[in-house]
Amino acid sequence: MRSRLVAMILALALSIAPAFAQPAASTVAAADQVMALPAPLRERLHREILHDNPSAHDRLQRLGTFMFSPEGLGMTYVETANHTVAQAYEARTANCLTFTMLFLALAKEAGLEATPQEIGQILGFRQADGTLYLSNHVNASVRAGVRKYTVDVAGDLIIPRDQPEPITTTRLIAHYYNNLAVERLAAADYPGALSLLDTALTLDPGYAGFWSNAGVVRTRSGDLRGGEKAYRRALALDPANANALFNLAGLAARMGDRSLEAEYRQRLAKVQRNDPFHAFMQAVNAENAGDLARAIREYRRAVDLQPQEHRFHSALANAYLKAGRIRAAVRSLTQAQALSDGDTRAAYSERLDALRAR
To answer: Which residues cross the membrane (predicted)?
Structure first.
């Protein structure tokens, strides 16, 4: 049986910009130090959580309280706080990747069986500016006795396309260097970004996303051939990698190779035809532009591709409502309600009552 305990989000999109200066590459922690517990934190863990030899379930519950309560670590989420475990303990801030690493490091010290997991693609919502973004996502799976829990502090703020898959701690740490590289890229520090990506790729050369990001850095630094080579490596590892296909099409256009550009755009279109997130974002763009007919078509396509996602049905209901199609809005909202639970289900019920009262 799997239950939800807390939540975490990992945003590796290249659009993320740093809110504070990042350390130079020479000062970045070595891989074996990224998840190392500092001695004061280890001592607190044993003194405040493990002192009376609690059961696995009690250890897990205490650990969750310890991480977030003011009397414990009082951790605060900051999107740009891409820290090592030791830095997070000192700053008491962490982004989602760092929250995951911190939990896993503490869980290991507490004798809990915990594993990092990754969802290949999620649709997320950035509350600060209301933007949608595509990314990947990490969380943790932990066993306490006979039960398994998912540790994921932003589960309600993301839409997963796939089920989470276990990954190695090595890949998790490679994501840390990739995140730092993305921040260096945003600062136009191309040598620093490439150095960090080289570290990520040394740790996990089989991850297509790192190669795609390396292609972006090399292309922006003027190394078009190096960028093309990196993108092609990403496609060799993941032939449906939309980022690499999109960037290769743009690179071919830049180089004047119209035939190759058309080939990549055709491959990209084939991938996007089966991508519910692409359909959803096309629908959002159309709705924002006032094209409700197209928005409804694209929302319906998203629903067809991922019919169990209640938020797709809800968005379709909103578009129907704007178009004056009340009965269709009620049908879609009824489906959203059936696919949801808890407070979300109750909120849908209130909206349905209001619509039916019209």
So the answer is: none
